[in-house]
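Ex. 9. Protein: VOC family protein.
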Amino acid sequence: MSAEQRGDAPATFRNLTLEALDHQRLADWWCEALGYRRREQWAGEAQPRPAEWPVAIHDPGGEGPTIWITPVGERAASRNPVRLDVWGDTGRLLAMGATMVSEREGARDWDVLADPEGNEFLVFPPPEGGIPVHPGVR
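Predicted structure tokens for VOC family protein:
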């Protein structure tokens, strides 16, 4: 769906996040299952990310979304282990019925909101230069 087709939607899909007790093992599993690869380093980073940090896996063909596998010490019954991350307008999403779980602060540049059913999702401010277009993602 192009930006024109989305119209004036208050959010745009960014990536999917899975919580895992053993995030390194689960990242390897999903890489094998989907034919994805780990993204060990990002542009501008001199060193690979530490093993305790979340792992990003991506479709080497560029068609599928980035999936983040993030470590959690234990799963809380109230939290959903799969989460959507979006670039968006927090105010507009709140006006549509989302609720604020926690506001961005300090180095954390995202808000945590919950949809009307209580499912949490992260809202990031749109990046400078606009939201990247992934034409192969369906």
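Check your answer against this statement. Residues 3-124 form a domain with the 2,3-Dihydroxybiphenyl 1,2-Dioxygenase; domain 1 fold (CATH 3.10.180.10).
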